[in-house]
Design a protein that fits this description.
four-stranded mixed sheet, alpha+beta, 403 residues, 2 helices, elongated
């Protein structure tokens, strides 16, 4: 006798035998095994995808290392050729035509180099593999000085998307608040990249804006972090302040910074609170000022008898006395011979005010009384979108630019 039945084989090789009269039981058995099979397939698929991701990441890392090696190799090849070309260009002419030779070379130099020519001793310095900082000479206030400006924008080490800049008086190293990359990058006095910081909590940066060095400490305002971070000059996190206390004592969007050499007090502009906060050298809130006069304070500088505040909401430079009382304002926006929209300024050793003019692409130089005496870069393409400005101990004007 033969019983009515059906033989079913699933893809895993299992044979199902069931009485056709009990077809519902058969369906349930097949469905359970099928679900189990799907789970196993999905699990294996995820394992394979994870393995693939690891392989892809390894290949990307290998490619990055390969690109760096190729870049280094190309640089080594170009450096000797470049120096040879420069020396040949210089020695083809006599001493009266050195300037022409330098200008001729300037237009076809490689992108990896910055050249500093010492006119007195025919010495060429190769600042090697920069592409990030250029050194240019300009006539400033009836004397020749040097401007270092950023010339490469990016996120790799040595590339910057900057705002503030300062100089360590001891080492003359240049510290750049790399705003869009959430870090500070450090270059030597010739523009060679040295190191960067900071990536980790609790000192993680959140749009570093202003930066100043006092003693062995680096103060960096965090525009979106509502605080100021404190590091040592090597980039080790020390502390932070400005984000604790009552509403009137805490920061909203801190920008420019300055430190009093008299007592170590720290002055912090707050763009949205329309005040300048003052903290002790122990990072304790002390006082704020300027509420009725400031409408967007952006940068600040101190002298023995004055406090200068650059205001962007009511474009001008406000001057306060050391007792924090308002004195007067100078340098308005829009009128002939004045200044355009600006974020940063600095003071030189003679007390002149150098404003990094974003709108007019110049460095406007004013006396302490507000008289315009110079416009660095006027009629040229030296500047594109310049921000932070500082003068180092060699009397060089250092400007960070988005060019």
């Amino acid at each position: 006798l033969f019983y009515p039945c059906v033989l079913l084989v699933n893809c895993s090789g299992r044979v199902y035998k069931a009485d056709i009269s009990n077809i519902e039981s058969l369906r349930g058995q097949i469905g359970s095994d099928f679900d189990d099979l799907i789970r196993k397939v999905n699990k294996r698929r995820n394992e394979l995808l994870d393995e693939l991701d690891e392989k892809v990441n390894e290949l990307l890392l290998d490619q990055k290392e390969t690109d760096e090696l190729i870049s280094d190799y190309e640089y080594e090849l170009s450096r000797d050729e470049f120096k040879s070309e420069f020396l040949k260009s210089i020695h083809e002419v006599n001493i009266q035509h050195k300037t022409e030779a330098l200008q001729k070379l300037y237009h076809h130099r490689t992108k990896h180099h910055m050249i500093h020519y010492e006119w007195d001793n025919d010495m060429v310095q190769d600042f090697s593999k920069l592409g990030k900082i250029e050194l240019k000479e300009v006539n400033y206030h009836n004397k020749t000085t040097q401007i270092i400006e950023s010339s490469k924008r990016g996120s790799k080490s040595g590339e910057i998307k900057p705002l503030g800049v300062t100089v360590d008086d001891k080492s003359n190293n240049i510290f750049v608040a790399d705003y869009e990359n959430d870090r500070v990058q450090v270059f030597d006095s010739n523009g060679k990249y040295l190191y960067k910081f900071c990536d980790n909590e609790p000192g993680k940066m959140n749009r570093p804006h202003g930066i100043v060095i006092y003693g062995d400490k680096v103060y960096v305002s965090q525009f979106h972090g509502k605080r100021v971070n404190v590091y040592d000059v090597k980039g080790n996190y020390i502390d932070q302040f400005g984000n604790h206390g009552s509403e009137s004592e805490t920061m909203s969007h801190p920008t420019g910074l300055a430190v009093s050499h008299k007592n170590g007090d720290i002055y912090v502009c707050d763009l949205y609170r329309d005040v300048v906060f003052v903290y002790t050298n122990e990072l304790k809130y002390k006082v704020s000022f300027g509420k009725s006069k400031l409408y967007g304070p952006k940068d600040i500088a101190l002298t023995q008898g004055r406090i200068y505040v650059l205001d962007v909401g009511n474009p001008c430079v406000h001057i306060f006395n050391t007792d924090l009382s308002y004195s007067h304002s100078i340098v308005s926006r829009g009128s002939d011979g004045q200044v355009g929209y600006s974020y940063f300024f600095t003071l030189d050793i003679e007390g002149n005010i150098l404003i990094s003019d974003l709108e007019r692409h110049v460095i406007s130089v004013f006396t302490a009384e507000g008289e315009l005496i110079d416009e660095i870069g006027k009629g040229s393409d030296i500047f594109y979108k310049q921000y932070g400005i500082v003068i180092d101990r060699m009397n060089r004007i250092i400007v960070v630019d988005e060019k």
